[in-house]
Give the backbone structure.
Amino acid sequence: MEEYFSAIHKMEQAVMFPSLLRGVYMEQQDDTSTGDFGNRDLYEYYMQLKSIKLAVEGRLAPLNESKHQITSREEVQENGEEADLEGLLYHHFTGLYRVLTHLTRKAHALTRKYNEIIGQINQSEITLTW
């Protein structure tokens, strides 16, 4: 999880003007981190990655969903159905790890693309000033 937060922090530090990402799409490359951006622009992914970070940090935890999960758990215990808690925990941690790894790759790819855009803008300014 630390690697995910580090990637998002680097992305936030690098992307000073998120509006530059509007209308920019990730080109298809052999790299698996860029292959799943779909048809949304990088600005949408930037906003999504930031909001997921806030949710993971616990700032956007919806109270209604957590109450529903508690009642569901109580209902399971009331019905006498015993779940393999260790197996469930392992399953959820494995899923969380996969999701965070996927999001970390997206953050790195988005940051690389933004840096390319800034580099192109800087090259244009250098060419114009000479």
